Amino acid sequence: MHGLMLFYATHPFWVWLAVGAIFLAVEVATGTGWLLWPAASAGLVGLLTLAVSPGPPIEIALFAALTIATTYLARRFLQPVLEGPQHPDLNDPTLRLIGRDCEVVAAFEHGRGRVFADGKEWAAVVQDGLPPATGQRVMVVGIDGSVLTVR
User: Fold this and answer.
1) Among candidates 42, 150, 140, which has minimal Cα distance to 93?
2) I want to staple 37 with a disulfide (CB 3.0 to 4.6 A). Which of 32, 71, 109, 136 is the partner?
3) CATH fold for the domain made of 93-150
4) Which has the closest alpha carbon to 125: 135, 94, 138, 136?
5) Per DSSP, which regions of 14-119 are E strands?
6) Dihedrals phi, psi of 141, to nearest 5 degrees
7) Which of the four pLDDT bands, split at 50, 70 and 90, describes residue 76?
8) Is it the case that residue 64 has pLDDT exceeding 90?
9) What pLDDT score was predicted for residue 86?
10) Mean pLDDT over residues 91-99, rounded?
11) pLDDT of residue 46
């Protein structure tokens, strides 16, 4: 512990850079989006300590304030832009099925059946019209949970 305190006293920039790198590594591993802003805040505090060394209490308070402010601003203003209705979630593989053709693998009864799309078999419902026959090609027009709507 004494060695870390001595290192911090002589090189506070590198300590904050390491804190930011740890937050960034955990963010990359988890992909949550929550730890990106503490990582950036630690980097900013590190740059501040490189220019002016305000001392540990001020640095920690600045890190906390920057983390709260950047996280709030990103969630308030950046997230609605990125996750608007015209930009579906990139991590949801089912949304990529809309507009793709698939093959009916089980007969539709009462508007429900099974289709083969994207290398998997999916439950499906018919949007309108007559139920398709087994082997017929249909197009995915919507998704409700894990049930595809086909036409």
Assistant:
1) 140
2) 71
3) OB fold (Dihydrolipoamide Acetyltransferase, E2P) (2.40.50)
4) 138
5) 101-109, 112-117
6) -115, -10
7) confident
8) yes
9) 55
10) 79
11) 94
